[in-house]
Amino acid sequence: MTNFKGLIVLILALLCLAACYPSSTKKDDDVSDARRAAETNTSLGRQYMDRGQMEIALEKLKRAVAFDKTYAPAHTLLGVLYENIGMMKEARQEYRLAVEYDPKDGDVNNNYGAFLCAEGKGKEAERYFQAAVKDPFYATPQVAYSNAGLCALGMGDLDKAERYLRQSLEEDAEVSQSLLAMAKLNYSNGTYLGARAFLQRYESIEPQTAESLLLGYQIERALGDTSASTNYQNQLLQQFPDSAEAAQLND
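RESULT FIELD:
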């Protein structure tokens, strides 16, 4: 009798496996199909954004989250798109959803941190930058460190800004925005030779901008190098005559 009962249990188990396995597989396939569709539409949305075709990009990204509302990259890109077209309420919502669905992802946290910083919420932004660099699979921690440094610099916290910016450059010695920010920070601190060194490193990897030329002019003037400051001044006036930076030369 015991063996018979055991056989019944085994048959029932096999029947259950036979009945349940296809159903489970179908459910997994449906999830996979939805995720693949979300990934495809997100990729298309990014491509259209790169081309400046925001309306089509928006359509693709909305379709992505319709297929899989938990796909964080689609929400992040929607946040970027809405931010670019000035729909800040919608952008904020999408960034929040991205963090909600993937709270440990480096890109997701960095993007939300940058958005919060732009809104003047530097203290709140910092924890998202910190979360970004804790992600072991985050490919560009130097970017999050740099953004954290720029955010701290904008808040006037020079010590914290320098710490983050140096961490950024330890990760990647050629993060141009970190180099330029360190040049500004050193100039503000009166460390003019350090400012010159960071600016020269910036200039070795990036073309001159009105911002960098004005900073070069200010640094060289502070160092008493008339020839170098005049060279920066002339380049600024020739290349960016109508810029706000050129106007500051007369201040």
